[in-house]
Automatic annotation (TrEMBL):
Topology in the lipid bilayer: Multi-pass membrane protein
Segments traversing the membrane: 22-43, 55-78, 99-127, 133-151, 158-177, 197-217, 229-253, 265-283, 309-326, 332-353, 365-384, 390-408
The protein's name: Cytosine permease
Similarity comment: Belongs to the purine-cytosine permease (2.A.39) family.
Organism from which the protein derives: Phytopseudomonas argentinensis
This protein's record includes keyword Transport: no
Protein's cellular compartments: Membrane
Keyword line: Membrane, Transmembrane, Transmembrane helix
Molecular function via GO: cytosine transmembrane transporter activity
Upper classification of the organism: Bacteria, Pseudomonadati, Pseudomonadota, Gammaproteobacteria, Pseudomonadales
UniProt KW Glycoprotein keyword: no
Record-linked NCBIfam families: PRK11017.1
Name of one Pfam family that matches: Transp_cyt_pur
Length: 423
């Protein structure tokens, strides 16, 4: 049985009404989460393959789909007070939910290793420091970036309120200079693409780059005071925020052949601003990432010691960064990006169809060890996503949700038949 938690971030229980947050807090939290360097690289690849108008349409469609996905999960999280890993208990069972815990947790610790290594390597390059400092800097930032996550929602909120305005100001300044360097918007729009890519692939890149993050954004939307706030905040983060990252990456790639805004700021002669952007860009994603890991870890271990799990996760991520494993992890994490979204599809179907839009309190319910309907639906969705030639994450979500409904009804038929036979 789940007991009331003493942690203000409620790692093993529903978020109570008294702990809910308003629109500004929830929105700025998700906006800072999506301010991510890797998304800019996706935008850079798209920017080299399309004219500017088509690029904008790809960004709008991809991020609208991403925002809608995050918004539906956000609405469910707000109404239930649960995050994705806790909802996984209903979808996959008490023991079965450990599958989603491992997948979601490992993805986040991999990205944490990547961010920790990146900040050390790039800082040494920008400031012209000795390469012998890379490892000590990895250790320093590996634990420093988790401080706000260690504090919890309040720490993430404070950092977001400071960092988001600063990052926006630097980004807009960089875009203004880039527009001037290329000769204005008319010159930008006249540039012909140098690479080729289908619109479907572009939308897949836009949607897929941060869909794993959208699946775990329930860690914050469950704190939303109302469903309306959860939906609006999700769209602010994953439509506007992620969309801005895609466009910024494309801008840098077109003008400077460099999608990373930090590198662009250096090219523009703004090295100090580049260092500031580097810290803020990675810190606001790193602390959210390790917070997600802690949420998955607490559910996996059934412990309320969120702060301990946070520190342990930072240690694991730092060791992976030092060992150079972050370079090998990225391809695998991209693979997980296609097989994680079906978790969201199962959650949607389980909540809306299986539980008729209302979960019972975790403390009052006894769940089976394995929910084979949810696990089977996830397996089908993940396989279809992996082999899909189209927008793989979207296929995974849709197929998993549909498979859940079919398996749910099939189970009901067999259960009813067994009852009739026994009678």
């Amino acid at each position: 049985m789940t007991h009331p938690t003493t942690d203000s971030d409620y790692p093993l229980s529903e978020v109570p009404a008294g702990a809910r947050k308003g629109l500004f807090s929830t929105s700025i939290m998700l906006f800072s989460f999506t301010f991510f360097t890797a998304t800019m690289f996706a935008g850079g690849k798209i920017g080299m393959a399309f004219d500017f108008k088509t690029l904008i349409w790809a960004a709008i469609i991809g991020n609208l789909l991403l925002g809608a996905y995050a918004a539906v999960l956000g609405l469910i999280a707000c109404r239930s007070g649960l995050n994705s890993v806790l909802m996984g208990r209903f979808c996959f069972g008490e023991a079965g939910s450990k599958l989603s815990d491992v997948l979601l947790g490992f993805t986040q610790i991999g990205w944490y290793a990547w961010g920790t290594a990146t900040v050390a390597i790039v800082l040494v390059k920008i400031l012209g420091l000795s390469e012998s400092l890379i490892m000590p800097l990895m250790v320093l930032f590996g634990f420093a970036f988790c401080i706000t996550a260690f504090i919890g929602y309040k720490g993430l909120d404070i950092l977001s309120r400071i960092s988001v305005p600063a990052m926006l100001a630097l980004l807009l300044c960089s875009l203004w200079i880039a527009t001037d360097d290329i000769g204005g918007l008319s010159a930008l729009m006249a540039i012909e693409p140098t690479q080729s890519m289908t619109l479907s692939v572009a939308i897949t890149m836009v949607f897929g780059t941060f869909v794993s993050g959208a699946t775990q954004a329930t860690n914050w939307t469950r704190f939303a005071r109302t469903g309306r706030i959860a939906v609006i905040a999700s769209m602010v983060g994953f439509f506007l925020g992620n969309g801005l990252m895609i466009v910024a990456g494309a801008y840098g790639a077109i003008v400077y052949q460099q999608p990373d805004v930090v590198e662009v700021l250096v090219l523009q002669g703004l090295s100090i601003a580049a260092v500031v952007m580097l810290f803020l860009n990675l810190w606001t994603t790193q602390d959210n990432t390790i917070y997600n890991f802690a949420a998955a870890g607490c559910n996996l271990l059934r412990t309320e010691r969120r702060k301990t799990v946070t520190i342990a996760g930072a240690g694991i991520g730092t060791l992976l960064a030092i060992g150079g494993m972050y370079e090998m992890l990225i391809p695998f994490l991209i693979l997980l990006g296609s097989i994680i979204p079906p978790i969201g599809g199962v959650i949607m179907a389980d909540y809306c169809y299986g539980h008729k839009g209302r979960y019972p309190l975790l403390a009052d319910v006894r769940l089976p060890a394995f929910n084979w309907v949810g696990l089977g639906a996830y397996g089908i969705g993940a396989l279809c996503a992996y082999f899909s030639p189209w927008v793989a994450p979207l296929v995974g979500i849709a197929v998993a949700a549909l498979a859940y409904i079919v398996l749910f009804e099939t189970k009901k038929v067999f259960t009813t038949r067994d009852v009739v036979v026994r009678a």
